């Protein structure tokens, strides 16, 4: 029976890989088809082919989906008001020439907290080009630190979709994962960003191209928010969720103040408060009318429809893994092989990432497979397992990853140069993330 379940998992994953990589089918349909094939191969009745899938789909939308929607609204308000530009401009204006790579990493780290990776790239690449041209520096010297910051936050820190998916699948504490994720992300960004960029700039010493456009079309107000207001909107959900974790770890959640902090730090409440704050600071305070703010909030929803469907389908795939007994069978095999759970989660995510080119699909699949093992872990190690999967999900971006081609075209590099810079950076970031997770696993 165990052999049948493992083969069923391999068949489902093979279908997903084949549909995404060879037939170019959208990941939503690929995950749905893979879940169906896996259910049949595992011996589930055909009449219940998608019962587990629809259950997991709905549960994921109710949990992770709402957080992604709220995060998208915050990001849209931050961009459209010029708040993201204020953060970038303020940091750049106070940075000496020799510190520019570190400044770009810091900007990406801060701006990357509320923004999806693709949005962050669109925002920061014109800044990278402008700064590199102004300072007469190789574009890689500034571009790689910016990309490292965005990629680390994308893979390791909620409220990005990948970490949220893994947190949901493994039942991890969001605030604790957020805190540990920020700790892991800092050395990842430093090593895979400014330090690695110094070497890569010698390998690929290309100058910055003409500016590839900017986000000027998103600025519809005459006034821009202050630096303090922009930073507050970025960090508010982080502060609220971390405060909840501190209160819970201190055992103070039963007191009147403790209950209030725990409530305000609930992910849904924290992001909802941030949305309202952003509507005022990034909307009304910069001269927008109520209708304009409402329109901006609405404009944040269509671009994330695809992400929501993929994430929800991933929840359905994960539930099928669990209900069919496949996840338990694979987890049992990993336990018998004596592979440490943190390393096993990273390896599974790496393999799916290499096959599909999708960090999201890698996180979804690895989270579902590792869920039974997470049940026996402490809260801190469950959070570290989320981070190990997140680190594995960004390993070696190559030709089957849309991000590979986006970076190649933005920087005007050849395929070989993109491998030497972007792909290597992602690999170094992933391995550094694993090393940090394993080290933390020894002390927490």
Task: Kindly summarize this structure in a few lines.
With 444 residues, the protein is mainly alpha-helical.
Secondary structure: elements and pairs:
Elements: H1 2-22, H2 27-41, H3 51-80, H4 83-93, H5 100-111, H6 117-135, H7 139-156, H8 161-170, H9 174-203, H10 227-249, H11 256-264, H12 267-281, H13 290-299, H14 305-323, H15 326-336, H16 341-356, H17 359-374, H18 379-393, H19 402-411, H20 415-443
Helix pairs in contact: 1-2, 1-15, 2-14, 3-8, 3-12, 3-13, 3-14, 4-5, 4-6, 4-10, 5-6, 5-7, 5-9, 6-7, 7-9, 7-20, 8-17, 8-18, 9-10, 9-18, 9-20, 10-11, 10-12, 14-17, 15-17, 16-17, 16-18, 17-18, 18-20
Q: Based on Cα principal axes, name the global outline.
A: globular
- E-strand count: 0
Spell the H/E element sequence.
Answer: HHHHHHHHHHHHHHHHHHHH
Structural class: mainly alpha
Sheet with most strands: none
- Terminal-residue CA separation: 37 Å
Mean pLDDT: 86
Strand content bin: under 5%
Indicate the multimeric state. single chain
Count every helix, treating DSSP H or I runs of 4 or more residues as helices.
Answer: 20
Low-confidence stretches: 211-220
What is the count of distinct domains?
A: 1
Helix content: over 70%
Rg over C-alpha atoms, rounded to the nearest angstrom: 21 Å
Structure description:
It is a multi-pass membrane protein. The protein has helices at 2-22, 27-41, 51-80, 83-93, 100-111, 117-135, 139-156, 161-170, 174-203, 227-249, 256-264, 267-281, 290-299, 305-323, 326-336, 341-356, 359-374, 379-393, 402-411, 415-443. The two termini are 37 Å apart. Mean pLDDT is 86; it is low at 211-220. It has 444 residues and is mostly helical. Helix 9 crosses helix 10, helix 9 (174-203) runs parallel beside helix 18 (379-393) and helix 10 (227-249) runs antiparallel to helix 12. It has one domain (2-443). The chain is globular and about 60 Å long.
């Amino acid at each position: 029976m165990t052999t049948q379940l493992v083969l069923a998992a391999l068949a489902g994953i093979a279908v997903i890989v084949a549909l995404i990589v060879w037939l170019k089918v959208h990941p939503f349909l690929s995950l749905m088809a893979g879940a169906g094939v896996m259910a049949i191969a595992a011996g589930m009745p055909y009449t219940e082919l998608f019962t587990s899938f629809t259950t997991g789909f709905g549960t994921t939308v109710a949990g992770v989906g709402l957080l992604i929607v709220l995060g998208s609204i915050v990001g849209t308000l931050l961009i459209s008001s010029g708040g993201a530009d204020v953060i970038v401009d303020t940091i750049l204006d106070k940075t000496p020439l020799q510190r520019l790579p570190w400044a770009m990493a810091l900007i990406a780290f801060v701006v990357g907290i509320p923004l999806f990776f693709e949005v962050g790239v669109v925002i920061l690449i014109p800044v990278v080009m402008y700064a590199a041209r102004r300072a007469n520096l190789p574009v890689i010297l500034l571009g790689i630190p910016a990309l490292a910051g965005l990629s680390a936050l994308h893979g390791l820190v909620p409220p990005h979709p990948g970490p949220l998916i893994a947190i949901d699948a493994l039942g991890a504490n969001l605030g604790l994962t957020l805190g540990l994720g920020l700790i892991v992300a800092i050395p990842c960004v430093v090593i895979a960003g400014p330090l690695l960029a110094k070497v890569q700039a010698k390998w690929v010493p290309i100058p910055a191209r003409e500016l590839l456009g900017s986000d000027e079309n998103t600025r519809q107000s005459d006034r821009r928010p202050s630096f303090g207001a922009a930073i507050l909107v970025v960090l508010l959900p982080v502060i609220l969720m971390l405060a909840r974790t501190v209160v819970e770890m201190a055992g103070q959640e039963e007191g009147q103040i403790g209950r209030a902090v725990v409530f305000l730090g609930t992910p849904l409440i924290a992001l909802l408060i941030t949305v309202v704050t952003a509507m005022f600071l990034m909307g009304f305070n910069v001269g927008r009318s109520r209708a304009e703010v409402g329109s901006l909030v609405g404009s944040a929803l269509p671009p994330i429809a695809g992400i929501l469907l993929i994430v929800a389908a991933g929840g359905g795939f994960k539930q099928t893994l669990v209900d069919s007994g496949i996840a338990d069978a694979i987890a049992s095999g990993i336990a018998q092989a004596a592979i440490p759970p943190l390393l096993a989660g990273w390896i599974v995510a790496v393999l799916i990432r290499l096959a599909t080119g999708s960090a999201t699909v890698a996180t979804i699949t690895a989270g579902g497979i590792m869920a039974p093992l997470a049940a026996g872990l402490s809260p801190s190690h469950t959070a570290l397992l989320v981070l190990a999967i997140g680190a594995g999900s960004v390993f070696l971006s190559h030709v089957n990853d849309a991000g590979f081609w986006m970076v190649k075209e933005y920087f005007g590099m050849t395929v070989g140069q993109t491998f030497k810079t972007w792909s290597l950076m992602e690999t170094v970031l992933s391995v550094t993330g694993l090393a940090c997770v394993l080290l933390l696993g020894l002390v927490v």
